Amino acid sequence: MKVSVISARELLAEHLELWRQMLAANPALNSPYFRPEFTQAVAAVRRDVQVGVMEESNGVIGFFPFQRTAMGMGRPVGGALSDFQAVIAAPDARWDAEELIRKCGLSLWDFDHLLASQSAFASSHRKTESSPYMDLSGGYESYAKARREDGSEQIKKAGNLRRKVEREIGPLEFAAHQFDEATFQLLLKWKSQQYLSSGTTDVFTYEWTVALLRRLLEIQTPEFAGMLSVLSVNGRVIAAHLGMRSRTTWHYWFPSYDHEFAKFSPGLLLLLKMAEAAPAMRINRIDLGKGESQYKNRLGSGETVISEGSVLVKPWASMWRKVRRNTESWSGTLGGVGAVPAKLLRRVDRKLRFR
């Protein structure tokens, strides 16, 4: 197998056409994360995004998008923003994972949301997890009925909350996509407050993440679009969600809400409004992302198995990765900030920003 590595900014029209054909031929690659538009959007705000173009004698067989660190280590496109990862290829395509990583000039490739169904990486898995989704292929009513029959009362309770807020305050208004600066900034503010209160890294303090989200929201095509969904009452926004969609799949990404309305669970009401609206948009699935959460357990009606692990080509890279995971900041991150000297942290952070 021949692998040609190019900057994601240099993808040609013929590359993009082949990429889209492979997506159409492989239902497992239905997430918006696998669209070329996502890779190109990240590449527009970062300089380290590359693509390995995989070729056999009969032509291109796949595309491997990745980010390259200063030490020649690879991570998924979008780093910690990436909720799904895979090689873009037809279902019957075959490749060797170690050969692919080596021919991309990488010492290793770390992954944490890789489709477990891509068997070439099976020997590199450290663990597998489930990523739940809402199956709306039969329409919203069919989905809701199936959840009730499975013993979940979440949708019934949400209906009671919806009627309560409309009775006590006013009618709810929903927009599947409403990109205006005020709502965008409000969502960022709410999420930053949420990160602060939970003691987790505020991803929006890094310019490239905000620039990426803004860029995604500007893309509006049938195959891919950023989505800023809004739930309002009496003209006041009480919940918002920023995500993205492919033609058939909506990814649930950055939700938040006005805590003055917390007793009404506005985030839950917004998610169910999205689910109600999805079939009319020809969207048959909302991916909720991996991670334990009560609402995911109650609303999820299917799951995708994803894996975490590494393809290690050069043994020294394993030791350097441990150092990197303890020192790098979120700006290029797969890990958090450890207890390390601030001077070292700043030095490594500067090398990893690529801004």
Describe this structure in words.
The chain is α+β, with helices and mostly antiparallel strands and 355 residues long. Helices cover 36% and strands 27% of the residues. It is built from 11 helices and 13 strands. The chain has helices spanning 13-25, 36-45, 97-103, 140-149, 154-168, 181-198, 207-218, 266-277, 294-299, 316-327, 342-353, and strands at 2-7, 49-56, 59-68, 73-75, 88-89, 108-115, 125-135, 172-175, 224-233, 236-246, 249-257, 285-287, 302-312. Strands 1, 2, 3, 4, 5, 6, 7, 8, 9, 10, 11, 12 and 13 form a 13-stranded mixed β-sheet that branches. Strand 11 (249-257), helix 8 (266-277) and strand 12 form a beta-alpha-beta unit. It is globular, with a radius of gyration of 21 Å. Mean pLDDT is 90; it is low at 328-355.
Task: Describe the structure concisely.
This protein is α+β, with helices and mostly antiparallel strands and 355 residues long.
Order of helices and strands: EHHEEEEHEEHHEHHEEEHEHEHH
Distance between the amino and carboxyl termini: 33 Å
**Which word captures the global form?**
globular
**How would you characterize the largest beta sheet?**
13 strands, mixed
Tally the beta strands. Answer: 13
Average of the residue pLDDT scores: 90
Low-confidence stretches: 328-355
Q: If you compute it from the alpha carbons, what radius of gyration comes out, rounded to the nearest whole angstrom?
A: 21 Å
Helix fraction by DSSP (H/I, runs of at least 4): 25-40%
Alpha-beta classification: alpha+beta
**SS strand fraction:** 25-35%
Q: How many H/I helices?
A: 11
